[in-house]
């Protein structure tokens, strides 16, 4: 039973760093007309409750500032409503936030609780602290992901006006949106299969427009490579975490050795654990930072590039429909049968296609701008963080070097290298 | 490095130096002071054959004798090792060959004592400080390298030959620099000989590296992959450390078998080291028997030092094993990290290629390069530091097993002595019975026989007691040596690790500093 309130600091909950988290993947201009953020979050057994806080000067809303509590399923509902809305076919729909997943963390905490008897008090407290920190980190991340979604919608000139979105923000009762049951999930699965099959057919059609042709090729390749990089980045940061854990274990072993041993060796051994502990902290932080910066960035753009691909698919679909409508019209004219109907259909298709094409172009250009800005921000921050850590580690080592020298445990001749 | 202090020149009464040493070295204060603080030992050298006291294993006499014998053994060594002076030549003549009989050390000591008492004070002073020198650094001028592993032969009969190079100024060797080719079983053979000769009198003989059937088979079969080269390299390093540890031991250094191993170009093959040979099976049987015996021997430990030390070594063993396991896990994870970083670097490079914004593309490629370089760093660090640390821990776990073995030998020695006492008692009882019996004709003959046996067993009891004293003494010394060596070894490894850590950090800083402007340049 995990009841954890993630708001010890009140309004400071989203500190500088965390606000950075939110803006991590999208360089958004928040304007006064509509500002959305997640001001609070509560984690209960299976669900997370987000407090969505809105500030708006738009006339659509009853008040200027208000909050509601939403759960993950309601976000998904909102996202899906965008996807299913024909009017939005020409836009990149902001990707839905991933489901909050505390299972792994919860399992670990449970195992720790079970194994409490078999380890020393210090070990237990330490591991508990670490696992709680991990839990907290995952928690913060999921809050950030949900917030990014809302902000993207709020920043989009068309989507921000969506009625469902306003209901989502304002309606302070439960939206009664249940998660999809098995049948619906199965339906979704089939729908996706059909869609990807269709996508393959549709993508075979060469596009008249060079811009879109280029974009399509680019996106397909890019999407695949981002997927690969994201997976590899995850593996790398997991390895980092393993190394940090090992350091921790070695540190405690050395400490135990030191306390059981004779004087001079005790001094030696006791200083080395300090090394390992501090290195461990640093390794863990480096790994956490890499995780945040790189992996999150890559994962986010994996989802966005998928959304962009979906847009292109929709456009190609409408192009195919348009061309089919043209053919049908020609046939109808030739047979002189149902011409009016065919004409109407053709016109509709034409309009749809042109509408999509127009907005799609702009969307894709915006996508590129956003992407480049996000990567730039991230890479700069990553480099700065890594530098900071390397320097701090260097200082730690020098400090410990000096400690050891002071106790004359290492040879004086080494002083020259410091 | 402390180890490289020059032995003081002959003829100086360097008693004051001793104090300097003690104050200057916090590390050695405790060990040195235990020697100093042994209460009633004004002129140990003038104690001729009374080193064998009449009580069993009392600590005090042992301590006095400890200093004595220490001086003796080191005096032996230093006489051999350092310079020639006319007074000492007569003493030099009998080459110390403890190999002759198992109990030789004591018998050697006795004659030496007498001749020593003449020139005692001078020798005492100098060898005392030389002992300190050696305690601080075991400065025998000998350096061993094991190099150039070469595969000899083919198929399952193939083996690796290693070149053993010795550089030394010690006079007991024929040349100053020489090298021989040895194979792994030769090393095992050497260890086996040394162990047989010295372990049961209490010397901690450094254990040889372990056999590895899997590793060797791969090499024999000719698999030229990285794991078999790694295996050969690990073994080479282990063999080098083994030899270096062995020659550091002052008593072992004197051993003719060791000398033969280092010097002679042809060595009889040590077939008895094979696991499946007759000797191998015999060894296994003996080990099992020993284990059973250990459980049945209940020793009356009247010396708390030994009990304490045994407990300490037990704890140390456990802790080292745990630590070793953790360090091996770390080495493994470091390797994984390295592989994953390399994979990520490639992936990032690909991503950079497909990115159509030029500056971002370039930055991503740079990121890939940085990650690759960092991967290199990780690899080097994993190898140099943790591998070293891990191997050292493995060595010490084996060494502690040898130490435990030596303690066991002491127990056996005690048992033998006790058994002799029991037998003597029985014989005395038998004699008493005979005295009371009334058979005049058989009586005299039986009485004589019994008298002879009693004499025999009295000698055995005395011998047993002496052996026990001797082994206890030797063990104390050896344990002291072991502790110092341990500190030194760990110190060296830690220092090396620190150095490379600092270097790694400096490199990391360089790489990220080079990358930062590229990231900022994305427009």
Automatic annotation (TrEMBL), chain A:
- The entry's keywords: Protein transport, Transport
Q: Does the keyword Nucleotide-binding apply?
A: no
UniProt source species? Crocodylus porosus
Spell out the InterPro entries in the cross-references.
AH/BAR_dom_sf, PX_dom, PX_dom_sf, PX_SNX6, SNX5/SNX6/SNX32, Vps5_C
Q: Which CDD domains match?
A: PX_SNX6
- Give every PX domain span: 28-175
UniProt-recorded Gene Ontology molecular function terms: phosphatidylinositol binding
Entry's Gene Ontology cellular component terms: cytosol; endosome
Q: Main role?
A: Involved in several stages of intracellular trafficking.
Stated name of the protein: Sorting nexin
GO BP terms:
protein transport; retrograde transport, endosome to Golgi
Regarding protein family, the annotation reads: Belongs to the sorting nexin family.
Please give the Gene3D superfamilies that the UniProt record associates with this protein: Arfaptin homology (AH) domain/BAR domain, Phox-like domain
Is Transport among the key words of this record? yes
